[in-house]
Amino acid sequence: MGKPSRERALEPEEAMAFAKMIRTSPRKLNLVAQSIRGKEASTALAELTFSKRRVAGEVRKVLQSAIANAENNHELDVDRLYVSQAFVGKAMVMRRFRARARGRVGRIEKPWSNLTVVVREREEAED
To answer: Whose CA is closest to 116, among 76, 62, 54, 42?
Structure first.
C-alpha cells in the first residue's frame, strides 16, 4: 500500500537538481544564478569554475548534479544540455544580536538560501 506516485513535474527532456540551506543571502546567490541562465551546460560550468564569488562553487556542484541526473536518470545527451532555469529561494534566517551602547542591541541576521537548477536538452536543428 503506499502513496500513489505523483506525476513528474518536469518535461521529459528536462532534469533538475536542488540544494537546500546554502549559507549565503538569496540576493548574492541570485547574482551567480543569473550569470548561468540560458547558457550551455559546459559554458556555465567553465564560468562557475573561474568565478571569483565564494558561492560559485556551491552553484557549480548543483549544476554538476543536474547534469548527472540528466545523463543517468533520464538518458539525455550531455552535449546538448543547457541551463533552462536557475532560481533562488529563501530558507531560514539565523538571528543573533550584538550589544550596543546604552543597553540597546543590534540585530544580526544570517540568511540561508535554496537553489534549483533545471537543465534541458536542446532540440536538434533540422536542416
So the answer is: 62
